[in-house]
Known about the structure:
The protein has helices at about 15-35, 45-65, 80-105, 110-130, 145-165, 170-195, 210-220, 220-235, 240, 275-280; strands at about 5, 70, 80, 135, 140, 195-200, 210. By secondary structure, the chain is mainly α.
Amino acid sequence: MQGTVDGFSYGLVTPLVAYLMACLGGALGLRCTTRSLLVSHSRRPAWLALGSAAIGSGIWTMHFIAMMGFSVAQAPIHYDRPLTFASLGVAIVMVGVGIFIVGYKGATGTALFTGGTVTGLGIASMHYLGMAGMQLDGRLEYNTVLVAGSVAIAMAAATAALWAAGQVRGFLWSVGASLVMGLAVTGMHYVGMASLRVHLHSTGSDVVGDGSTGFVVPMLIGPLAFLLLAGVVVVRDPMMVMGVPTRATVEHKPGVPAHPEIHHRTPRRSPPYSRRRQDRRGVRAPQNR
């Protein structure tokens, strides 16, 4: 028996909040990626890791906020804890691989294509692994064409976002890119959900796991707290709004002065023409006494 699926149990509330969370994670992550391009190589991994965790947490939070509005008639939904949290780890790791590629190779050519592809696949993997952790008294079936479309949307959105992050421009540039990225990621989620069909069992067997609302709400506290802390770090950094460094960054290493001395050589004045001519002949010009 085919179940009646409703993806908007709370109306437009869950899609809107999910979109805002995707935009927040995207804005923080892209800004950290841009910031990493303005610092020394020793500090770059920290900013890239923070950006990866922000984007991964943002899209994971977006997914499960949207899933709060998902329901199947006469079929309670439960979640498997290991698979649910594994989807968060997959999102952060795969997004991190893509961001590190662009952070060290640049947002052009092969590096941008590779980084965008890996990041997009990470977003799609997070979605479908999270769906695999959803358990109910039935069987999930997907439309292959719509699934492929959702993956393509995720890859295109990730590539465009990483390209925008590599432009090293002001804060508003990253905000605009995050709005587009949030729209694409949220759209990818609902395209993937549109491909879902649920075939209910008639046995009435119970599904072991945590309830939907009772599990989703508490598990969102950690990622939301992390996004808040990441936002504080981003806002407190003086170079985040300007988008360009105010001075050249110098690595502080043992044996390397923080401010190298610059010696200005005074230009030598050329001697008079008569003196240069006599010097070439080997005769020294008389000096005035």
